[in-house]
Amino acid sequence: RPRASARVQGRSAILEKFGGAATGLAPHLRRAGGTATVKAMLLEWCRARTRGYQHVDVQNFSGSWGSGLAFCALLHSFFPDAFDYGSLEPGARRHNFALAFTTAEERAGCAPLLEVEDMVRLPVPDAKCVYTYLQELYRCLVAKGLVKTKKR
């Protein structure tokens, strides 16, 4: 389990980079039931999109994302021509994070909220940072029409 200061540093890096905490939830994830329901829905969406990918078992917003492969699998599920998922190794964390974040930025237009160096430095990613990044990725994929949402 990472030291509290490492978790705080991860959150602080995001806040510093973007000038303050984000307000509100990602569009299209708003549902009655509060933040816990939104988190559960986002986690289930990630789980469903990454199901069947080798070395990926999404169970939470922290340890499940530690090798970078869950990010890669999620992006590969939308952009299978972007890279060869089968060639990725769980131990190549720096490469996996760099590939995922670059793909997300280039293909989905997702803001680079997470830094590769921060992710590699922490043995277990900060859940709030991962959750925030995944909300942004989801929002970008919705904006590109790659994720269908129910109309209200």
TrEMBL record:
InterPro entries: CH_dom, CH_dom_sf, F-actin_Monoox_Mical
Membership in a protein family: Belongs to the smoothelin family.
Pfam families found in the cross-reference section: CH
UniProt-recorded name of the protein: SMTL1 protein
SMART domains according to UniProt: CH (SM00033)
Species of the source: Pelecanoides urinatrix
Record keywords: Coiled coil, Phosphoprotein
Residues annotated as domain Calponin-homology (CH): 36-142
Domain of life: Eukaryota
